[in-house]
Every structure is written in structure tokens, then in C-alpha cells.
Amino acid sequence: MSMLNQFTWVILPYLCLVVFIVGLIYRYRYDQFGWTAKSSEFIEKKHLVIGNWLFHIGIVPVFFGHVAGLGIPKTWMNALGVSDHLYHIGAIYIGSLFGFMTLAGMLILTARRFAIKTVRKLSSASDLFVNVMLLAIVFMGMYSTLVTNYVIPEFDYRDSISVWIRGLFMFTPDASLMTNVPLSFKIHILLGFFIFALCPFTRLVHIFSVPLNYVQRSSILYRKHRSTGHKN
Ligand code: HEM
Predict the structure, then answer these.
(1) How many A from CA of 229 to the centre of ligand 1?
(2) Element (H, E) at 84
(3) What pLDDT does 232 receive?
(4) CA–CA separation, 231 vs 220, rounded Å?
(5) What is the model's pLDDT at position 59?
(6) Is the separation of the CB atoms in 14 and 71 below 8 Å?
(7) Mind listing the pLDDT tens digit for each residue in 41-100?
(8) From atom 36 of ligand 1, which residue's Cα is the shortest distance away?
(9) For residue 154, what pLDDT is reported?
(10) Residue ranges lining ligand 1, Cβ < 6 Å
(11) What is the SS3 assignment for 20?
(12) Any idea where the domains of the chain sit in the sequence?
């Protein structure tokens, strides 16, 4: 097997995961005050609320779909009475429904960040990059689910990608499992690993501090300054 294959499907994913874990520990120890999603709500609210809501409502089931599809072996699913046909119907219909919500949310959030001047000005290069990356990942995921699966019906990611990723986590990596995987899936997965590596150094770090007390705490009041009209 080629060195490139070995690098792409073994070394690179492990590198991304190491950067992800070490980066999170480093950021937690040295930059707790900067650990935030940097809200831009006070600049523009309408598009943020719709886009954010769609994205977050979509991404949670998509996440659990990934855990089930990648983590649970096909034989276990069959033993539970879920046939391959039933699984794929579920994965395509349910996956696409929430995938569409995620994609629509990302489109709104990206358009907002680039098209609204004040939001763009407040955004760092990393904010813009993360936005584009997420949009590309979600788009490639949807493309693979709807187009690639349709064009190459004999391809079943649970025989290749799922076995490969479980091998990575069990420290028995086998890059050859990825050789015949269609390109759209490959791009989706590589970008997916990159975003993990970027996570500790970007606003995505907020995923690991889900503000559960947010629902209960009293709201923060933004009010206009009388003399300048500026918000404080
Ligand atoms: C890093 C490892 C990842 C792997 C191995 C992976 C794998 C997959 C696979 C195999 C599919 C196709 C599912 C099907 O055909 O039914 C898929 C779809 C999808 N993925 Fe990923 N993915 C990864 C990361 C991500 C990330 C980080 C995101 C979002 C930020 C994401 C979002 C999606 C979406 C929206 C879909 C389409 C809807 C769905 O089927 O749930 N993926 N992914």
C-alpha cells in the first residue's frame, strides 16, 4: 500500500486527534477567559437566531447518526433486527432531514458573516475560515448521502469507513479499507478531521462548555448609552 495512503488514513487522522486533545488541554490551562463562542448577537440578531437554531437542531441528531453508523457494527444492527435495507432507508431519510437543517443553518450563518458588513468586521480570519470549513463539511456530507450513495448504490460505508474508523480508535488502523471509498466521502472525512484539529484554537471550543446554566440564569441586559447612543 502506498505511503500516501498510509499517511492520509492513519498518520493524519491521529495527528489531528492529538492536536485536538493536547490543544484542548493547553487552552483550558492557559486561556480559560478566551474560552468562548464570541457572540455577535448584539450586532445582528435575526439571521443569527434562525441560522443558529437550524444548525444546532440539525447537528445534534447528525452527530448521533454518525455515532450509530460509524460506531455500531453492521452485524450488531442485524442482530437487533435492523436489516441493511431498513438501516439505509432510515439513514437517508432521517439523516437527510437533519442534514438539510444543518446545511440551511450553515448557509444562513455563512451568508450573514460575509454579507453583513458589521458582522464581517468583527470576525477574525479564524471565524471566517471555520464558517467556510463547516459549510464545506456539511455540504460534502449531504452530497455523499444523497448523490454518491445514489450513483454508486453498491457502496456501503459501513463495510469500509466504519470499519476503518473503529480500527483507528482501537489502535489497529488499516488504511487499505479506505482505498476504494468514493472521493466525496474522502473529502468529507478529511475535512471532518481537520475541523477537530482546529477546534481548540477557534470559537468551536465552546462545544466543550455547553452552557447548561444558560437556560436558568437571568438574561444579560444590553442598553443604549444616553449620550453616545452606543451600546454598553
Ligand atoms: C471526522 C469524521 C467523520 C466521518 C468519518 C464522517 C462520515 C460520514 C458518513 C459516512 C456520512 C454518510 C452517511 C450516509 O450516507 O448515510 C456522513 C454524512 C454527513 N456528515 Fe459526516 N463524518 C465525519 C465528520 C463530520 C462532521 C465534523 C460534520 C459536521 C460538522 C459532519 C456532518 C455530516 C452531515 C451533515 C452528513 C449528511 C447527513 C447525514 O447523513 O447525517 N460529518 N458523514
Answers:
(1) 46
(2) helix 84-115
(3) 46
(4) 13
(5) 97
(6) no
(7) 766 777 788 999 999 999 999 999 999 999 999 999 999 999 999 998 988 899 999 999
(8) 141
(9) 93
(10) 62, 65-66, 69-70, 91-92, 95, 99, 102, 134, 137-138, 141-142, 144-145, 149, 157, 161, 165, 185, 188-189, 192-193, 195
(11) helix
(12) 3-29+43-208
Residue 66 C-alpha to ligand 1 middle, in angstroms? 6
Substitution site in 54, 145, 183, 195 for ligand 1 pocket (most atoms within 8 Å of beta carbon): 145
In this prediction, residue 1 carries a pLDDT of: 62
Q: How would residue 228 be classed by pLDDT, with cut points 50, 70 and 90?
A: low
Q: Cα(43) to centroid of ligand 1, in Å?
A: 32
Task: Give the number of other CB atoms < 10 A from CB of residue 121.
Answer: 8
CB distance 84 to 156 below 8 Å:
yes
Mutate to test the pocket of ligand 1, among 66, 147, 199 (most ligand atoms within 8 A of CB): 66
Question: Any bridge partners for residue 224, and if so which?
Answer: 231
CA 143-149-155 angle, 5° bins: 135
Greater confidence, 59 or 36? 59
Q: What is the pTM of this model?
A: 0.88
The full length of the chain comes to 232
* CATH architecture of the domain with range 3-29+43-208: Up-down Bundle (1.20)
Ligand 1: distance of its center to the CA of 173 in Å?
Answer: 20
Q: What is the pLDDT of residues 180-207, one digit of tens each?
A: 999 999 999 999 999 999 999 998 988 8
Cα-to-centroid distance, 137 and ligand 1 (Å):
8
Max intra-chain CA distance, the chain:
70
pLDDT, tens digit (0-9, with 9 covering 90-100), for 10-21? 999 999 999 999
